Amino acid sequence: MTVQEQFERRPRAWLYQMLIILIVMAALVWSSSAIQINETESDGATVALRIINGIFHPDAKLLFDLSRQGVLYLLLETICIAFLGTVVGAILSIPLSFLSATNIVPRPIALIGRFLIMAIRTVPVFVYGLMLIMVTGPGPFAGLLTMSLCSIGMLSKMFIETIEDLDKRILESLAAAGCTTFQKIRYGILPQLFPSFASTIIYRFDMNLRDATVLGLVGAGGIGAPLIFAMSSYRWNEVGAILTGLVILVLIVEFFSNRIRNKLARGL
Questions:
Q1: How far is the C-alpha of 58 from the C-alpha of 247, rounded, in Å?
Q2: In whole angstroms, what is the distance from residue 83 CA to residue 105 CA?
Q3: Residue 24 lies in a domain
Q4: Residue 96: which of 190, 159, 185 has the closest Cα?
Q5: Could you give the CA distance from residue 60 to residue 246 in angstroms, rounded to a whole number?
């Protein structure tokens, strides 16, 4: 059969494509009927200029205030929530990861551990925050528990991949040399796992620092609540002060975390 004959006998899918396009267009037209446009009292450009002016003219008094309502204290609270949440999550993730690695434990036990990790990772950070606030009340402790749970999901998954990539030949060599179990762990397992584990934990800390900022919106401590209150009250100078502090904090943490990860990657 020639190419021309095969081309002429090709399936005629244009009808189905046109039908799908019509269905999508009908759905868009139907959904657009629910959109309501309300008139605002002021022009949008004016509001945008006010926001930009406030952000670029931050409230210096709030930015350098050393009280519990100042930006510096709130940033310190945010970074403590992220750091402690990462540490607690990492400590809990290590044994869970070993119990979920198929090259360490039998497959049925590993599957149970993986199912637990998957269940933890399924719940969004906001849902954890709202649930834990109901238990512990609003405050930094709820944020710390939320960061810990969210860290377990990601760290455990990354740790499992590292554990399953272990070079068993090193352990066999140590066993042939007459090393004890503790010596095999000390000289055979930990040197392989430590750089990857540390890099993953640092990366998770970066993520927790941003998540801890957002968690304040639901009352879990940190700088998120003052930020949303300032935005709701149209106090754009205070918004500018808070955002300035956040940007500086993130840049500092990013600088040091990148240097540490580079040293770990190069074995320094």
A1: 13
A2: 31
A3: no
A4: 159
A5: 14
* Residue 41 located in a structural domain: no
pLDDT tens, residue by residue, 222-265: 777 787 777 777 788 888 888 888 888 888 888 888 888 777 76
Residue-wise burial string across 153-167, b where 16 or more C-beta atoms lie within 10 A, e elsewhere: bbbbbbbbebbeebe
Residue with tokens 């801890």: 212
Domain membership of residue 243 (yes or no) is yes
Tokens read off for 181: 């179990």
Is 87 contained in some domain?
Answer: yes
Q: What are the backbone dihedrals phi and psi of residue 10, each rounded to the nearest 5 degrees, phi first?
A: -65, 155
User: Which CATH number covers residue 253?
Assistant: 1.10.3720.10
Q: Where in the sequence is the domain holding 174, given as residue range(s)?
A: 66-266
pLDDT band at 87 (very low <50, low <70, confident <90, very high): very high
Q: How many domains does the chain have?
A: 1
Predicted confidence (pLDDT) at residue 136 exceeds the cutoff of 60: yes
- Assigned token pair, 97: 């990861």
- Rounded (10°) angle between helices 190-215 and 224-232: 30
Contact 220, 129 (CB under 8 A): yes
Query: Cα–Cα distance between 167 and 177 in angstroms, integer?
Result: 17
Give the DSSP per-residue string, the chain.
--HHHHHHTS---HHHHHHHHHHHHHHHHHHHTT---PPPSS-HHHHHHHHHHHHTS--HHHHT--STTSHHHHHHHHHHHHHHHHHHHHHHHHHHHHHH-TTTS-HHHHHHHHHHHHHHHHS-HHHHHHHHHHHH-SSHHHHHHHHHHHHHHHHHHHHHHHHHT--HHHHHHHHHTT--HHHHIIIIIHHHHHHHHHHHHHHHHHHHHHHHHHHGGGTSSSSHHHHHHHHHTT-HHHHHHHHHHHHHHHHHHHHHHHHHHHHHHHT-
